[in-house]
Amino acid sequence: MDLKADQERFGFQAEVTQLLNLMANSLYSNKEIFLRELISNASDAIDRLRFERFSQQRAEENAEKPWIRVGYDKDAKTIIVADNGIGMSRDEVVKNIGTIAKSGTKEFLKGLSGDERADANLIGEFGVGFYSAFVVAERVVLTTRRAGLPAEEAVRWESDGAGEFTLGPAERAEPGTTIVLHLREGEDDLLNGFRLRSIVQRYSDHIGVPILMPSDDGEGESAVNEASALWRRPKSELTEKDYHDYYRHITGDFSEPLIHLHAKVEGRYDYTLLLFVPSHAPYDLWAREFRRKVRLHVQRVFIMEDDGQLLPDYLRFVTGIIDSSDLPLNVSREILQSSLAVEHIRASAAKKVLKLLKDLADKEPEKYAVFWKEFGTVLKEGVAEDYSNREEITELLRFTSTHSSTENADVSFRDYIGRMKEGQDKIYYLLAPSFAAATASPHLEAFREKGVEVLLLSEAVDNWVVGGLVQEIDGHRLQSVAQGAPPDFGDSEDEDGKKAIEEATEAHADLTAKLKELLDGKAWDVRVTNRLTTSPACIIAAEPDTDFNLVQRLRGTGLPNQPVLEINPGHPLIRRLNARPDDPRLGDWAHVLFNQAVLTMGARVEDPASFATHLNELLVALTEET
Ligand SMILES: Nc1ncnc2c1ncn2[C@@H]1O[C@H](COP(=O)(O)OP(=O)(O)OP(=O)(O)O)[C@@H](O)[C@H]1O
C-alpha cells in the first residue's frame, strides 16, 4: 500500500506550540529527562493494557510478557523507544499527541514566570511528557497500534515540533508504540550504549517492567533495570534516591517529596502503602476537578487512580501507591465502593498518614512548617470531615498568635496551653478577615496588656474549626475574644477589675441605656467593658450568637446577628459623654461610636451616608465651639 499518499496534515493546538517553545529553553539543561518521560509513558501504556485485559477479563495467558526497548542507531542518528503496551488508535493519537487534553492548561501557561529554572519545575509538574522528545530531536516519528485492532490499522505520526504534524497509516506486527527520535545536530553524545544505559538506570530503575537494551557486543539484549515493583521491595534495599525517582515517575514533580511512608501491612487485610507528601502544593490543589494522585494496584497491577475512596478528601495532597492483595483483579468502582477491604485500607491509611505528620511535627519542625504552609488549610478540613481522627488532626493544627506576631502559623494548641498564664483556664482566639485586621483589632487590647496570648484565625475554614467542632482541648474551653461576657483572667488584679467594672456599669447605667435606645435596631445591647485599653468602643457577639462569621463577612455587612456595643469607661470620650447626660448630640455620638467599632472589626458600615452625616454634625459642632 502507498502509505505516503494517505498522509494528512494537522496543526498543533496553540498551547502545545507554546509549551514546545518553552521547553526547548527551560529543559535543555536537563535534556536527558526525555528518556525518562518516554519510558514513563511506555510503562503507563503497559499498565493500561494489563488493566484493560483484567477488567474485560480477557485471558492473559497468550499475551506476550511486557517489555520496553531502548535502542539507538549511530548511522541514522536515531534513538528508539518502543513498548508493547496498549498503543493508540488513530483517534487516540489525534486526541493525545498534538493537543493537551488536561484542563487548566491555559491557566497554567499564564502562570509561568519567565524564570527558566522555576518554570522548568512547573513544566515538570504539569507533565509535558512526550513533548520533551523535541528537546533533543528535530523530528519524531511515532508508530502505534492499538491493542485489539488489526496490524494494518496502525498509525504513523510525524512532526518536527514546529507547529504541525502528519498522520498516516502504518503497519505494526504487534500492539504497542515505537518512537523514533531523529536527533538534532550536536546531540551525538547520546548515541552511546553506556550513556543511555546509565540514563535509564539513573531515572528509570524503579519501573516495574523490564527495560531492554542491546548488549554492547551486539549479541542479544538484557534488562537494564530491576523491574520489580519498587514498593514490593524490602525497605532495607531501597535508598532515598530510589524513592525520589519513583516519586518523580508517578508525579512528574521535579522537586523532592517532603516525606514518604512505606509500609507493608499484614493482618486481616494485606496491603502495601507507598505514600508521599510533596514539598509544595500542586498548582491545581484547589481546582474542583483536582486529580488525586493515589493509585490503586491489586497484586502489583495498576487498577485505577483513586477517586476519593482510598484516602479522605482532606488528605488529597498525598500521592503514591496502595497495593492490595485482597481485592479481585477485575475490581470495579462498584466493588470498591462496597468493599470491606477498601474501607479498612482507607481508615488505616489515613491513620498512618496522620501519624507520619505527627512524627514530622515532633522531630522535624522546620519540615513540618513547610508542610503546614503548603497544605495546612486542606488538613484543617479534616476537623470537620473525619470525626474519628479529630483529636489527631487537632494536634496537627497550627495558628498565628499574638505570641510571635508573625504571619507564620506556628503555634499549636499544645504550645498555647504551655504558655497559659496562671489562673487562665480558656484558650482565647480571634477570628478576623485577615492577619492584619486581626492584629489591629481592639478586642486584643486588654489581652495584650495582661500578656495573655490570643490565637489569630483568619482563614475561612477556621470558623468551622473553632466554631463548634473543637470545643475544648485538655479541659480548656475555646473562647472568642469577640464574643460573650468580658474576659475573666482569673488573677487577683482581675478581682479588682471585676469590682471596677461592676461599679462602672452602675455609674454608666444611664448612658448605656440611652445609647441602647438611640441604637435601636443596630446594637442588640450596650454595656461597659474591661476589654479595651485605648479604643473607646468595640463590637462583640452576644454569647449564644455565632461569632463574627467569616462566611457571612464575605456577603453581608459582616456583623454578628446580635452585635453588642461595648464601651470603655476609661476613655476620655466615654467619660465626657457620661458627664453630660443631656448632650443634644448624643444621637450623633452613638452612631459614630457604633460605626467606628464596626470599622475596626473589619466589617462594613451598613449605611455609610448616615454615618458621614452623624460625623459631620459632630465636626460642625466642634468647629462652632472653637
Ligand atoms: N507509549 C505510549 N503508548 C500509548 N499511549 C501513549 C504513549 N505515550 C503517550 N501516550 C498517550 O499520549 C498522552 C500524552 O502523553 P504525555 O506524555 O504528553 O502526557 P501524559 O503522559 O498524559 O502526562 P504525564 O507526562 O504528566 O504523565 C498520554 O496520556 C497517553 O494517552
Automatic annotation (TrEMBL):
Role noted for this protein: Molecular chaperone. Has ATPase activity.
UniProt keyword terms in alphabetical order: ATP-binding, Chaperone, Cytoplasm, Nucleotide-binding, Stress response
Family note: Belongs to the heat shock protein 90 family.
Database matches in CDD domains: HATPase_Hsp90-like (cd16927)
Segments forming domain Histidine kinase/HSP90-like ATPase: 30-187
PROSITE patterns tied to this protein: HSP90
TM regions (residue ranges): none
GO molecular function: ATP binding; ATP hydrolysis activity; ATP-dependent protein folding chaperone; unfolded protein binding
Residue segments, region A: 1-333
Designated name of the protein: Chaperone protein HtpG
Matching InterPro entries: HATPase_C_sf, HATPase_dom, Heat_shock_protein_90_CS, HSP90_C, Hsp90_fam, Hsp90_N, Ribosomal_Su5_D2-typ_SF
SUPFAM superfamilies hit by this protein: ATPase domain of HSP90 chaperone/DNA topoisomerase II/histidine kinase (SSF55874), HSP90 C-terminal domain (SSF110942), Ribosomal protein S5 domain 2-like (SSF54211)
GO CC field: cytoplasm
Stretches the record annotates as C: 553-626
Lineage per the UniProt record: Bacteria, Bacillati, Actinomycetota, Actinomycetes, Streptosporangiales
Compartment(s) of residence: Cytoplasm
Subunit structure, as described in the record: Homodimer.
Annotated positions binding ATP: E37, N41, D83, M88, N96, K102, S103, G104, T177, R333
Classification via NCBIfam families: PRK05218.1 (NF003555)
